[in-house]
Amino acid sequence: MPRVLVVDDSPQMRATLRLNLRARQYEVAVAPDGNGALTGAADWYPDLVILDLGLPDLDGMDVIRGLRGWSQVPIIVLSGRTGGDDKVEALDAGADDYVTKPFGVEELVARIRAVTRRTPVAGPRPTVDVGRNAVDLTGIVYGPDGGRVHLTPTEWGLLEILVRHPGTLISRQRLLAEVWSPKHVDAVNYLRVYLASLRRKLEDDPSRPRHLITEPGRGYRFDP
After folding, report:
1. Can you give the pTM of this predicted structure?
2. Staple partner for 64: which of 9, 14, 93, 121, CB 3.0–4.6 Å?
């Protein structure tokens, strides 16, 4: 069955779409926010994403750009924003279609069929290029020669967060809380040590990194 990831902060909307799509033989997963969308897309590998723009943590436009940093999964925006500028921005960011709320389920399903018909069959799981290295989001990093690059669990935890949010500044506090624990949000020296190690393994010139970027006093970002 085709896999559809529904991303909406409304529990009622998630339940409605899940019920109606399952009744039409789609396999459905749901996410309530932008981070759940990015994680779900990487872990579950859907055939299509239905995305609301008004999410509690990330703007939907940023989610589209984040997905397009490593995936060509079709995206249908389902939003209450009816302005022409919003539609243009979403389509320019990489969305495949835009449906405004309120909507008819049959119309949405027809749009799903149309988008998936013109989308190539999915290939292998997506990878993200970090310089000459390929990062498989299942947890494997391949070097320029095709061999595996060994990362410690902590190094992988940091890298995974960064590559799943290309171009997005990730604060030091968030990295420390997610990779270590909320008790370590002031341990910025941990980040310096492990980011330096990642750069030695993945950057062509670790002293002048092009992909794992430090924003002094703020955090880090991944530039594809």
Report:
1. 0.64
2. 93
